[in-house]
Amino acid sequence: MISQKMIAASFSSKLPVFRLMCCFALAVAALSCQQPTAGPAESPKSITANDYMNESGFRDLVDRFEAPDRNEWQCPDLILDQLGPMQDKTIMDLGAGTGYFSVRFVDAGAKVIAADVDQRFLDFLSQRAEGLGYGPDQLQMRRVPYNSPSLAKAEVDLFFTCNTYHHIESRESYFREVKQGLAPGGRVAIVDFQGGSSPHGPPPAMRVGADVMQRELKAAGFRRIAVDSTTLPEQVLVIAWP
């Protein structure tokens, strides 16, 4: 038979361990109360398209924009064919970068405003224009803020942007300003990557589908919108008129 003395002795021998376990439990509880609750993992959408692009160095961006194989998937000649004659037209090329399209517009007879938020690209393009013998009446540089095209009223016949629409954050208000900058009969032409994935372009989460473009442009006051999703292998061409 187990006596009360034996039970008391057994309990007394385990008491230090019991106290230690209680102290440990209280310490853990206190620590958990002091630590902030962990939030969800950062999603790709929390990184803006501008942040994503600028993870690359400037020289790397220049090499990418002027890559020898870009013509194969960008198809600039097909785009210019779709846009029609440019002789004596005034065009803003937003997100001009290295001037991939700007110089083609000048060669087609247009007066071009090469617009970019990054002064490094404008400096690069200025040197390129000088080397090509372009005068300021053919190609001018304009640094623009992220939230405005900086267009005068009725300043351009064509507002063109390639691979840049998904970089603009407040697009409805932005394109209301663009609309004010179009001359009578003017239009907007947007080239950007289709939804999903493709060999080139930003991650799928950063892309803007053609249906979203149409909705945003209508909200900005454009009444007629044409979408061409078949001419270019990886991109869509959207043309809009007020």
Name a few traits of the molecule.
single chain, alpha/beta, 2 domains, 242 residues, 9 helices, 7-stranded mixed sheet, Rossmann fold
Write up this protein:
With about 240 residues, this protein is of the alpha/beta class. It has 2 domains: about 35 residues; about 200 residues, Rossmann fold (3-Layer(aba) Sandwich), CATH 3.40.50. The chain contains 9 helices and 7 strands, in the order αααααβαβαββαβαββ. A 7-stranded mixed sheet has the order 3-2-1-4-5-7-6, sandwiched between helices. It is globular and about 40 Å long.
Q: Radius of gyration over alpha carbons? A: 30 Å
Residues in helix, %: 40-55%
Strand count, sense and barrel status of the largest sheet are: 7 strands, mixed
Helix-strand string: HHHHHEHEHEEHEHEE
**What oligomeric assembly is this protein in?**
single chain
CATH topology of the largest domain: Rossmann fold
What is the topological layout?
Blueprint: H1 4-34, H2 49-53, H3 58-65, H4 70-74, H5 76-83, E1 90-94, H6 102-107, E2 111-116, H7 119-132, E3 139-143, E4 156-162, H8 171-180, E5 182-193, H9 210-219, E6 224-228, E7 235-241
Parallel strand pairs: 1-2, 1-4, 2-3, 4-5
Antiparallel strand pairs: 5-7, 6-7
